[in-house]
UniProtKB/TrEMBL annotation:
GO terms for molecular function: ATP binding; ATP hydrolysis activity. It comes from Nonomuraea zeae. It holds the Pfam family ABC_tran. InterPro entries: AAA+_ATPase (IPR003593), ABC_transporter-like_ATP-bd (IPR003439), ABC_Transporter_VariousFunc (IPR051782), P-loop_NTPase (IPR027417). Residues 5-230 form the ABC transporter domain. This is ABC transporter ATP-binding protein. The keyword Electron transport does not apply. It comes from the Bacteria. The lineage of its organism: Bacteria, Bacillati, Actinomycetota, Actinomycetes, Streptosporangiales.
Amino acid sequence: MTAVLQAQALGKKYGKRWALRECTIDIPAGHVVGLVGPNGAGKTTLLKLACGQLEPTAGAITVLGGRPGSTPAQLAKVGFVAQDTPVYAGLTVAEHLRLGAQLNPRWDEAMARERIARLGLDPAHRAGKLSGGQRAQLALTLGLAKRPELLILDEPVASLDPLARREFLQGLMEATVEHQFSVVLSSHLVSDLERVCDFLIVLVDSRVEVAGEVDRLLATHHRLTGPRRDPDRLPAGQQVISARHTDRQSTYVVRTDGPIHDPAWTVSRLSLEDLVLAHMEKRTAEDRRVALEVQR
């Protein structure tokens, strides 16, 4: 099966600043991918590279086997909903659907109309008069009715209230089950990603910190709590992701493929949010260590 997205040493530079660098990932088709990271980590840059809105400064990226945005056929395979769920305030709902039909050769008119009716959106209402949740649902309808093989969503629920977020994500999941396409969804809200995503990418400081199937990542990350112990006394197969110490106790988050037999440790599983935060702390600690070495 063709990978939905492959990047090799991908980088994008604005002036002297790298917005994304050394990004190497391979996402199999058929997943709902959560892309998470702090502000300025490179999430939007990666998504814009994936849909052809930006050209790489370094490395290479392919989406569904082709160069992003290179041909009309390639453009037709990818749907994109930007962070501000863009719609035209002066156009009615019906006019948005007509515009979608004109711009997209694979447009599914029946699906668009059925979804608008199910959402209770009046086709005669102008988008500028809709609520934030309704505008987000209209933008999602336009992306879905394009019938893409890959749908890219950049922070689509960031400004929505909890009910509107839940309804948006529920609609997205129903559509992925029914129409069998891949999704890449960026968000600051890890709880939302935990609800819908089965593949995770964590970007920190413009680099990929960790990527993989959610079940596999959760199965190989553990929290160890026990008597204070230096990290160099841990087994070689246990990669330390984060560490906290008191005078008497150490708490580690480690990544390992093997079982943990040491009876001194209390071993517990992580939530997806725990895992994400541990990797963010790891990168922050490494950057702080490098900065201190440079100062010396």
